[in-house]
Amino acid sequence: MKTTIGKYDPASCSVPVTFETDDVKHERFVNACLKNGVYDKKATAERVTQVALGVAAKIEVGAIVTPAAPENATEV
Length: 76
Fold this sequence. Notes:
By secondary structure, the protein is of the alpha+beta class. It is about 25% helix and about 30% strand. The protein has a 3-stranded antiparallel sheet, covered by helices on one side. A two-stranded antiparallel ribbon has the order 4-5.
């Protein structure tokens, strides 16, 4: 699984993360790790790795799927 960690948001104390497999793209926020009140990039990356294990398990059982693209509505 490929994970992409976005920019730290101090207001929510989180980072946006994209989890991607061949078939599924899942985006969610993950709580960031702080050390002495300062964003800890390395510890946050470790946390994201742990979250990715759970996301992978949910993808495997079908609990997380990529939503189908909406069909184009035809005008009458």
